[in-house]
Amino acid sequence: FFEGAPITCEKKGAEESQSSSSGGHTVPVTIVTGWLGSGKTTFLRHVLETLQKSHKKIAIIQNEASGVGVEDELKLVDDEGRPVADLKEIGGGCVCCSVRSDFVAALEALLKTRKFDHIFVECSGIADPGQLAQMFWLDDSLEGGIHLNGVIGVIDARLTNLSGMDKVAKATRNQLAYADIILMNKIDLVDENTIKKLKSTLRQLNPVPVELTIRSKVKDLQTLLNLQAYKPDAAEAAIQQALGPTSHSHESHGHGHASAETHLCHHPRHSGKCAHGCNDNSEAKHGTNKLSEKECVHDESIGAHFVELKEVEIDLEKLRRWLATVLWAHIKVKENEGQKEKKMNDASVIMRMKGLLRVKGSTERHYLQAVQELFEITTGPKWSQQDEAVSSKFVIIGQRLNAKELEDGLRNCCSGAD
Amino acid sequence: MATLQCPKCLKLGLPSTYYCDKKCFTQAWKAHNQIHKEHARRLAFKPPSFAYTGKLRPHYVTPMRKVPAHIKKPDYAISGTPVSEMRDKDKVVILNEKQIEGLREACRVGREVLDLAGHMVKPGVTTEEIDVKVHQWCIERGAYPSPLNYHNFPKSCCTSPNEVICHGIPDARPLQEGDIVNIDITVYKNGFHGDLNETFLVGEVDEESKKLVRTTYESLMLAIRACKPDFFIRDFGKIISKHCNRKNYSVVRSYCGHGIGELFHCAPNVPHYSKNKAIGTCKPGMAFTIEPMINIKSWRDKTWPDNWTSVTADGKRSAQFEHTILVTETGCEVLTARTANSKPFWWEEQKEVKDKKTSK
Predict the structure, then answer these.
(1) Would you give the DSSP letter of residue A39?
(2) Distance between CA atoms of A263 and A306, rounded to whole angstroms?
(3) Is some CB atom of chain B closer than 8 A to the CB atom of A223?
(4) Out of B88, B265, B297, whose CB is closest to A96?
(5) Rounded to an integer, what distance in angstroms lies between the CA atom of residue A30 and that of residue A403?
(6) In which residues is Zn(2+) 4 bound (chain B) (predicted)?
(7) Backbone angles phi, psi at A170, to 5 degrees
(8) B265 vs chain A: nearest CA distance in angstroms?
(9) B98 burial via Cβ count (<10 Å: 0-12, 13-18, 19+)
């Protein structure tokens, strides 16, 4: 399946240079999720056709999740649908103590001999894009052949039950929680009110941009191909975007206390009142200066939370400790005789996090990016004079999150807090 | 009395095997002829064509050795595939007292074998000869040499000279005066793996290589010193990197330290470079290796056509040291610690000589 050409090792003189400039081309990997019928496949077809016109070479990794092992279900095909290679046979050198998963190592080995301009990972409806994002989000230091561009979630505008408790709704929410952009497709088949409502529901789930499409055609393909959603500064852009016109933040000043946050809590639609006592009929709930004790945390609910910390500075070491607690608490420990298996089913889970940080002892911006168990804190440009009042902001998407706990946890990461 | 010599061996100049009579010889022929065949393969061996980055070339590798039935073997010993690893690779293991004892013993045996191997290192000795002895020493101690058939690795230890970063395959190449060579030993005893390695000097070695070796060892020990409960695994890379960059050396990025215990390689993953996203913090009862590979110039690596040998992309030298660590309540225990039998480091020998001089 190599169109006749054998694999040869190309000698790349430039690669051997010591400088870590990323002048070397690394192939963007974009994860696309969506149910059969959402328009995901059509969207990919459009993308392929457009790119082929400019002679770009595309490969698609198909993920037929069956829940066994993520990597076993990944198949690489070219834009004609032909299998590119049996990646298991290529290997990539020894993977027994390697930084890359077997699949990514094999993929990078392949990319040394076959050129691709973009790779798409096409996920089935039940696939976990977070696990895939984690797999492709490599350390920059590796200067690998690929980098994670981002996750595109495609949904059908006629989706009536995004808030439901059935399997499809849950899986859809899971997919969308990881999206860096959502394509709401088939909008020509619904009325404006439906679009408005769905947009609002989506915003509570994940406040990323929503593009409205008809027959899966996007306005600006280049932007999608260049999401760079996991780059450090993308965190700042994403947060500005999340703040948007529809969110309000109520601020309290002084006393070195962090202000209250606006949380975009998602309320699954129960038949009437929410069991926790919040009589929610509005889409977004505004945080108040004093957070009420009754927080709406529902079983299974995935929601986006926004935390803003004003007039305080973050202690990086405390923040790292907090992240270690919230992101790694659930890591499976292999059972030994006499060890009880930890019951993790009711725990809250953070799925995706982006932060813009004002750090104690630094004049530089700091960014936080996180997905599932991975997180990275990096530095950015210095704060300017106008940025004096800028506070630290976080957008956190997860399951069964307690808004107050989140805010308290982050507030405790500020210098001066105990 | 056996006086009949194999005529073919005589012709080929191989060491003689003696047989009682023609009948005896004929019966033994099928097995004995394998020796002639192997000899022919050895003579016919040519390194495959490849853009080799340095002076080193692959040499002839002898057939895979056997391990007696009474030695407890890991699951991959027959099939080549470590099935249990693939199933449990993401799970972190906290060892209980009994398991810790098992691991301690495996590490002690590994240390014994490495110490013996280290004393073999001198010009003219082939890495194959070292592998023969390592294989024998493991079996004598009731242990299985873990590398053997792990993902089909053909030998019982890894020998990595000069520009080889790791996973060098023992072969017919004699060590040369001036070489540096890493010997990586892992043994499997009573269900536990113990993993360690050291870089040895072959005869008189140039100053740059000596400096590289010492810096690499120091970076490992600095990392170990920092290890204690709640220490971030990703921070080992910061320490190692900082120390090596001071000397303008670079840290290999493709290979990491790894969890170890009942499995050869498991969680956690321990990168040696800075700015990594390693998951987890140290917890008492966790066991893992730290094994920095440090290069004179470029950090990049390439793999030989044998799909194992990893070499520096620029052909310059690389050194490595490895220990298996157990995190304790207060810090950590180096399970593969050096003993009185360990071959002294060059800087220790130098000090000894100095001390002797000053005491005179």
Answers:
(1) T
(2) 5
(3) no
(4) B265
(5) 31
(6) 195, 258, 291, 322
(7) -60, -45
(8) 7
(9) exposed
Q: Please give, rounded to a whole number of angstroms, the shortest distance from the CA of B1 to a CA of chain A.
A: 51
| Nearest C-alpha neighbor of A245 from the set A199, A295, A308 | A199
Is A320 part of the contact surface with chain B (CB cutoff 8 Å)? yes
Residues of chain B neighbouring A17 (CB-CB closer than 8 A): 298
B256·A376 Cβ contact <8 A: no
Mutation site, A137, A139, A367, interface B, largest B CB count within 10 A: A139
Decide if A343 contacts A352 (C-beta within 8 A): no
CATH topology of domain A302-333+345-413: Hypothetical Protein Yjia; Chain: A;domain 2 (3.30.1220)
Both structure tokens of A363: 């004049």
- Rounded Cα distance between A354 and A29, Å, is 20
Contact flag B232-A320 (C-beta cutoff 8 Å):
yes
From chain B, pick out residues whose CB is under 8 angstroms from the CB of A9. Answer: 50-51
Query: Which candidate in B150, B250, B254, B281 is best for mutational testing of the A interface (most A CBs within 10 A)?
Result: B254
Q: Is this model's pTM higher than 0.80 or not?
A: yes
* Nearest one of A215, A305, A291, A225 to A259, comparing CA atoms: A291
Closest CA of chain B from A138, distance in Å = 8
Q: Which residue of A has its CA nearest to B241?
A: A141
Architecture per CATH, domain A27-228, reads as 3-Layer(aba) Sandwich (3.40)
Angle at A132 between CA A131 and CA A137, to 5 degrees: 105
Closest chain A residue to the Cα of B95, Cα to Cα: A336
> In chain A, where are the structural domains located?
27-228, 302-333+345-413
Question: Which A residues 37-76 touch B at CB under 8 Å?
Answer: 69
Buried b (16+ CB within 10 A) or exposed e, B55-72: ebebbbbbeebebeeebe
Strand partners, B320: B293
Q: Are B310 and B166 in contact (CB under 8 A)?
A: yes
Domains, chain B, with CATH or none? 4-44 (no CATH), 83-352 (3.90.230.10)
CA distances (Å), A60 to each of A100, A118, B221, in order? 19, 9, 45
What is the nearest CA distance from B27 to chain A, expressed in angstroms?
42
In the numeric block, which tokens belong to residue A338? 């006499």
Token pair in block for residue A21: 């400039």
Could you tell me the two tokens for A288?
A: 């108040």
Q: What is the ipTM of this complex?
A: 0.88
Q: What is the pLDDT along chain A (418 residues), one digit of tens a residue?
A: 223 333 333 333 333 333 333 345 799 999 999 888 888 888 988 898 888 888 888 888 887 665 555 555 677 887 777 877 666 555 544 555 567 777 888 888 888 888 899 999 988 777 889 989 999 999 998 888 899 999 999 999 887 678 888 888 888 898 999 999 999 989 888 899 888 989 998 999 999 999 888 888 888 888 889 999 999 889 988 888 887 654 444 333 333 333 333 444 433 333 333 333 344 433 334 433 222 323 333 446 889 999 999 888 999 999 999 999 999 987 766 655 444 445 456 678 999 999 999 999 898 999 999 999 999 999 999 988 777 667 899 999 999 898 899 999 999 999 865 4
Residue B52, phi then psi, degrees to nearest 5: -60, 140
Chain A residues closer than 8 Å to B312 by CB: none
Q: Which two tokens stand for residue A346?
A: 């009711």
Whether B111 and B118 have beta carbons less than 8 Å apart is answered as no
Cβ neighbours of residue B10 under 8 Å, at least 6 residues apart? B16
How far apart CA A52 and CA A55 sit, in angstroms, is 5
Q: Which of A222, A186, A228 is nearest to A50 (CA)?
A: A222
